[in-house]
Amino acid sequence: MSQSAYIKLVKGSQDQELTLPYIQSTLLRYREQTAKTGEQLGWDYAEAAFPYTIESSGDERWFYLKGINGHYKHMIMGPGKTTSISGEEVPCIQVVLTDDATHGDKAKANELCRYMAKTLQAELTMFNGRTIYYNPRK
């Protein structure tokens, strides 16, 4: 059975609208940052930190990350709408791990979700159902 995590743009989040190119650019920014970290360390960290290629799905609703080695298969990402803790409908990024996902995929998905949620100052509902709040709350 597939598992999903949701990065929800709630009140106080940096943005209130999501598009497929915006999500992809956030992932590319992550890849750039990890590559620069690797340069500083003298190690090719970019491939270890982001072991995927971004593949189009053919429609404009979602895309998938395809693993570049045997430890990673793939994960699916796309914008959507979901209900926040307060009960209102909010835009979100849904990250889906399919049945054949590896432990590496789940670990990377958790890492990418935390990065994107922190960048967007969003509310993150993890694969295990727990919620992490990166948005400013009062």
Automatic annotation (TrEMBL):
Task: Kindly give the InterPro entries that the UniProt entry links to this protein.
Answer: DUF1885, Rbstp2229-like_sf
| Name of the protein this chain belongs to | DUF1885 family protein
